[in-house]
Amino acid sequence: RDKLVTGVQTCALPISFTAFRLIRSLAGSPVAGVAGAIAYAAAPVARNAVWHGAIGPLVRFAVATAVVAILAGAGRTALRSGPGRVRAAAGASVLLALAGAAWPPALGLALLVGFATLVALPFAGDGALTRRMFALAVVATVGAVVLTLAWTMTLFGADAATFGFVPRVPLELIDVLTGRTGRAGAGPAAYGLLVAALVPLALASGPRLAWAMRGWSLAVCAFAATWIPGRLAPDAPVPSPDGLLVVAALGLAIAAGIGAAAVVDDLHRHHFGWPQLVAAASVAGLGLGALGLA
Of the given ranges (106-120, 172-186, 244-258), which has the lowest mean pLDDT? Predict the structure, then answer.
């Protein structure tokens, strides 16, 4: 466990910088990047994975921002050139393969992101972006499976635990929403992140609102993947909730960052009223969330 703590501390800066770049590009604001990076770093999933001694979810936590950045970049720019498409697919495949080698369910990360983007389509619009992101997610997943084929071929006939699926005590819904899979997530910080992530749904507009909706779709899909199996089959083997909730943490961080940008850039257009109350909720939420880093 001490080695895991050292590894997390060593990787914290590059992971936060990747989250900053991703969320800054989605919102078009460095304020969003900073707020989103804080929200992602403050999410309890990584600390709970350390507490559980689980390296796989930590690797997924590390690569998730880069994978989503590749998918979102491909969706937004269309990557009309052949080399651009190949580079994006190859980069995402390598990242998924690395994560999958540490935790096999991580091979499905890109597919979960693509599926969440499809779910958000009625609310966020832009069918062309959605199709490009989903298509690249499928290609990257196939590429990751090919890259790990020599290893996965040796696992045919292995039990579910070999693939990271073991019976677990079902989590209550409130524990799933706050990421309380271990010691972290029991305080007010996790609730603050949820409040901050709700802000853009009231203040943001245009592309920012669309990406906030996609962020919430990521979170809701991850919440569902974590909570529903335990309700339907309490004794069935399931993957680590820490690993599944990584996607929820990133989705909430995207929404919280966009909310911060909306407060800074858009709120000055309004007179005193409910927007100021929403802004106060955003600041309080991010402040509570930041307590998770203390």
Answer: 172-186
